[in-house]
Amino acid sequence: MKDGPNIARIAALIGDPARADILTALMADRALTATELAGIAGVTKQTVSAHLAKLVDARLIEVAAQGRHRYFRLAGRDVAQLLESLMGVAFRTGAVRLRSSPREPALRKARVCYDHLAGELAVAAFEAMLMRGWFIARIGELDLTDTGRAELARLGIDVSSPASGRRPACRMCLDWGERRHHLAGAVGAAVLQHVLDAGWARRLPDSRVVAFNPWGEKAFREVFLLD
């Protein structure tokens, strides 16, 4: 008996190399045009249009028109979570293309995971916040404590009403590079936004890399880590 959702169709869509490149590029939570995605995937505009149509039809991505342009982005955080999990499995099993890339160390150190911070710094920060009692982690659950809420508010990070709709206030996201967890959810997104607004780091164009400047990394470590 074959019950439940058909994962084979989704797996086949993601498994195509060009579509996988498109989805990975959209993990940076940026809307991109078909022309930009064609360049990233290394295919023609006609070919990328066919790929995008299939991804839109499967509700893996969504499209919005603005003037004469159409912009594509991931259809939701659940899609981003699925892709990050697949990246973790790929990394663990050795299916890694970044090993010889000059961007690989920067990508592993700090990057965007859809709308929150991932990488070595993010993992170390989350573990420090757990040790300080800002969060309580249980199997499959993560709760922000009163201490954590107060400390984040003291830093100017507003978590008064972080949840919207079905989005969790905070959750653990398995980091593909570290094989440990970093902070996701609305609170994780607020922390990343604070890092960018404070000028501690910037997002590199056409990349998921979050590049910290020297004084910004020092400030981040002083605030979030146990250095």
Briefly characterize the structure.
This protein has helices at 7-15, 17-25, 34-41, 45-57, 77-92, 104-109, 120-131, 146-154, 185-197, 214-224; strands spanning 32-33, 61-66, 69-74, 111-113, 116-118, 135-138, 141-144, 171-174, 181-184, 201-203, 210-212. The chain has 227 residues and is an alpha+beta fold.
Task: Explain what the structure shows.
The protein has 227 residues and is an alpha+beta fold. The protein contains 10 helices and 11 strands. It has a 3-stranded antiparallel sheet. A two-stranded antiparallel sheet has the order 4-5. Strands 6-7 form a two-stranded antiparallel sheet. Helix 3 crosses helix 4. The protein is globular and about 50 Å long. It starts with 6 loop residues before the first helix and ends with a helix. The mean pLDDT is 86.
Tell me the layout of helices and strands.
Layout lengths: L6 H9 L1 H9 L6 E2 H8 L3 H13 L3 E6 L2 E6 L2 H16 L11 H6 L1 E3 L2 E3 L1 H12 L3 E4 L2 E4 L1 H9 L16 E4 L6 E4 H13 L3 E3 L6 E3 L1 H11 L3
What is the number of helices?
A: 10
Q: List the strand order in the largest sheet.
A: 1-3-2
Rounded mean pLDDT is: 86
Relative strand content: 15-25%
Encode the helix/strand succession as letters.
HHEHHEEHHEEHEEHEEHEEH
Roughly how many Å is the radius of gyration?
Answer: 18 Å
Low-confidence runs: none
Largest sheet: 3 strands, antiparallel
Structural class: alpha+beta
Helicity, as a percent range: 40-55%
Number of strands: 11
N-to-C span: 55 Å
Overall spatial form? globular
